[in-house]
Amino acid sequence: MNSDSYQEAIGTLPPDIRGEVVRVAEESFSLGVADAMGVTAVLTLLAAVVVFFVWPRRARRAPAGALRET
Hints:
This protein is an all-alpha fold. Helices cover 69% and strands 0% of the residues.
């Protein structure tokens, strides 16, 4: 919204319509940022769940070849 072409185009509009166009442009940008943040949060959560299930865990039993007590 800081480009010269935007300023030139918005300058040709009547004041009431200019205000509405600026409001709509700012609102749509804000919604786009909010959507991107929401998608990022969901993907991060999914990645964390995948890592939790895929990451190797410590074995709770003796390693193969270890002597067992009898």
